[in-house]
Request: fold
Amino acid sequence: MEAAALVFAIGDNYISLVFARAVQGIGSACIGVCGMSLVAQLYPEEEKRSKIMGIVLGSVALGVLVGYPVGGCLYDFVGKAAPFYIVSILIGVDLLLQCKFLELIVPIETLEDSSDNNTATWWPLLTDLVVFVVVLAICISTSTMAILEPCLPIWLLANLNPKIPSASSVWRLMLPHFGLGLGIGILDAALVPFLATYVDQKYGDFDGSASETFSNYGAIYAIQQMAVSLAYSFGPLFGGELAKVLGFPWLMRTMGSINCLYGPLLLFITSRINLQGSLIKSKDVLLNTGEDANHDYRRFYNSID
Reply:
């Protein structure tokens, strides 16, 4: 992320900016998967896990909310490189804080062969009906926002014509946009911790090590991030083409209908899953692993309470 910010600051051609965007995407995906896996492992209780993950996801939304106006003002009044230099400094400070407060020690168990245990791998997770339905719900909801990004500006220019600050109907567009963002946030806050709890129940090896549990979280959140990435990759591409064929209003009606129709299916699938009974076992695994460990990493697990 630091390298991407610096390349954005000094880049002055298309190739360098595309490279920086790709590096930023890789860094963002790694942070998202590892961060959510850490939170899921540290808080095995469903109630506390949902609360903490909601705060984490809300922090991401807060960064987006603040970043747009701050970045725009810095770009206009200071220069193109200013926001990226500031982001680079903040990333460096955050990295130092992580080195100071996080136990960056790999447990010995991660080096052992896990082929004989119940650790979840990519293919069982991808073919699991519940995981597929939940991940597809995240992809569909995110696709709606992704389709808006290329289509809404074109529709505004074609129908409103005046500059955005003087357009009389912009305020009416803000309400559905706000509702869409709110809906995506609520959906993510509910489904992201649900995935961790479901993996605990079905694929967790409660007699195994905490590193195997962490591996389960890494796989499921990698799939979840792939769904988001697919939405932002193909959403604008197909959205732009569909807007030409269907028109912007009908495209929005279609996406709204898909989201509404998919909701009952998601509710039906998730309501049939009993997530009770695995949470206490999962917590015991983390605590017992910490007590038996012979290295400083045990403090990470003992910090649950």
